[in-house]
């Protein structure tokens, strides 16, 4: 399946299911090395990262506490709203904890920057971010993600958790908007 239609838009295959899964396994290996002897709290940034988080944590050789946070940044369509708002907050204190934030995609970096500040203000010992996809050309924030699955061009993508107007999330691969 190389082309898919999500609502009114056509998308074409960008990263296959097997390429995604191979890269996620190797990210798991890297995290297992880097976090050896530590026990970071995994914080999955909903909604887009639910599949990536689910696949990634099954490659970890420790048994992490997993929490979820949801912030609003994109309002439905394909443009950023700028304004950040917490829709679902962490359920346990994070004082003194190492945090591993899990994101589906980093675009401008606004969400990442905001979340880093939010976690540090709540007393986290450290905050690192792993993102499946990174739109390097669109990035405007200070500190890039510590772990990146794939660098992609500045194009709109759907699938593997990521949506276009809340659809397309269940696709097992990543698809790019056709121009
Ligand atoms: P940022 O704050 O601009 O870095 O955007 C981060 C969030 O916007 C991501 O976590 C996604 O939820 C969403 N987003 C950015 N680019 C895309 C895209 O190409 N497709 C779907 N969602 C996206
Ligand atoms: Mg996201």
How would you explain this protein's 3D organization?
The chain is built from 3 helices and 10 strands. The protein is α/β, with parallel strands linked by helices. The structure holds inosinic acid (IMP) and magnesium ion. Magnesium ion (MG) is lined by residues 45, 48-49, 103-105.
Radius of gyration: 16 Å
- Spatial strand sequence of the major β-sheet: 5-4-3-6-7-8
The topology string of helices and strands comes to EEHEHEEEHEEEE
Number of strands: 10
Bound molecules: inosinic acid, magnesium ion
Strand content: 35-45%
Unreliable stretches (pLDDT < 50, length at least 5) are: none
Class per helix and strand makeup: alpha/beta
Assign an overall shape: globular
Oligomeric state of the chains present here: single chain
Give the termini distance in whole angstroms: 18 Å
Helix content, binned percent: 10-25%
Tell me the major beta sheet.
6 strands, mixed
On the 0-100 scale, what is the average pLDDT? Answer: 94
